[in-house]
Write a structure and sequence with these properties.
- It is built from eleven helices and eleven strands.
- Strands 3, 4, 5, 6, 9, 10 and 11 form a seven-stranded mixed sheet that branches. The chain has a two-stranded antiparallel ribbon with strand order 1-2. It has a two-stranded parallel sheet with strand order 7-8.
- It folds into three domains: 3-82, Winged helix-like DNA-binding domain superfamily/Winged helix DNA-binding domain (Arc Repressor Mutant, subunit A); 86-161 and 261-290, Periplasmic binding protein-like II (D-Maltodextrin-Binding Protein, domain 2, 3-Layer(aba) Sandwich); 163-259, D-Maltodextrin-Binding Protein, domain 2.
- The chain is 48% helix and 21% strand.
- The radius of gyration is 22 Å and the shape is globular.
- Helix 1 (3-15) crosses helix 2.
- The longest helix has 25 residues, at 59-83.
- With 291 residues, it is α/β, with parallel strands linked by helices.
- The termini are far apart.
- It has helices spanning 3-15, 18-25, 29-43, 59-83, 98-115, 128-136, 194-206, 219-227, 237-245, 256-259, 275-290; strands spanning 48-51, 54-57, 90-96, 119-125, 142-146, 154-168, 187-188, 214-215, 233-236, 250-252, 260-268.
């Protein structure tokens, strides 16, 4: 089984398009098509359903994707191991909650980039659910997510503890006022955000009926909508303090079991810890201890 065929299949499955996969792999579509067909013939079953808009991965293709991710990651790790002489270098692909990026990571990333200029660090934002999946399926080497989580393939380490607060417009003076608002809306990140789940639990505990959530992909958009009175949200206190001090938002303490959340750094148990990853983790731990 050819590793290039496997990588080609993964790229097509991710993009849903032979053309886009070819562009990513710096080849032509005919080469991509030939490699996919060769893999399908070797396995004895179709991996894609072809249609006018591109391709859709078959159930068989979906089943083998996690294994292909692990295989290609192991092959990539061989190259990293061979070149890793103990001096941090190469690439390091990480993920983070957007709130963690805004509140915690800027000084850490700046310090790391200055200390290790040879490392090509990339950090992508996402929800806890998506980042967990990306690490488990080897698309990211590690990520900052909100705990608690459970996954048999994932190593986790608590680095920060966040105090979560309910953020509302200044017109809402207490949690009791929420029940008086007809069709109260929540303003949240997309499904898979652990803070969103806690907000739903809080409002359910208060007996508050909410309308369909308003989903945004931007922290700034969520804060702006809440300040405008569009709805309410649940976020780390440090993220919303500036707006609260400017009287744009009101913040409300919530019960401790919902209002304390560990931020975890996760990676696969079986992943090779490169010198770049080891240096980043050591710096993150020191950064945590200084706070």
């Amino acid at each position: 089984m050819d590793i290039v065929d496997l990588k080609t299949f993964e790229a097509v499955a991710r993009h849903g398009s032979m053309n886009k996969a070819a562009a990513e792999l710096h080849t032509v579509q005919s080469n991509v098509t030939a490699r996919v067909r060769a893999l399908e013939e070797e396995l004895g079953m179709p991996l894609f359903q072809r249609h006018a808009r591109g391709v859709t991965t078959t159930p068989a293709g979906i089943r083998i994707l996690p294994a292909i991710a692990r295989i290609t990651k192991l092959v990539d790790d061989v190259v990293v191991m061979a070149k890793d002489d103990g001096v941090p270098g190469g690439s390091l692909s990480l993920g983070s909650l957007e709130t963690t990026m805004a509140l915690r990571l800027s000084p850490l990333i700046t310090r790391f980039a200055r200390a290790y200029p040879s490392v090509r660090l990339a950090v992508n934002a996402g929800t806890t659910a998506q980042l967990l999946l990306d690490v488990a399926e080897c698309r990211l080497e590690g990520a900052f997510v909100a705990g608690p989580i459970e996954h048999p393939d994932i190593h986790q380490e608590a680095l920060f503890t966040e105090e979560l607060v309910l953020a509302t417009s200044p017109a809402i003076r207490s949690l009791k006022d929420l029940a008086k608002i007809p069709d109260l809306k929540t303003v949240v990140f997309r499904l898979g955000c652990s803070y969103r789940q806690r907000l739903e639990s809080l409002l359910g505990r208060l007996g508050v009926v909410v309308a369909k959530p308003l989903e945004f992909g931007s922290l700034d958009a969520i804060v702006s909508c809440v300040a405008a009175g569009v709805g309410v949200t649940l976020l780390p206190k440090g993220v919303v303090i500036p707006a609260a001090k400017a009287a744009s938002l009101a913040i409300h303490a919530i019960p401790r079991d919902l209002g304390r959340a560990d931020t975890l750094f996760i990676r696969r148990h079986d992943a090779y810890v490169s010198s770049a990853m080891a240096a980043f983790l050591e710096m993150a731990r020191r950064h945590t201890n200084k706070r």
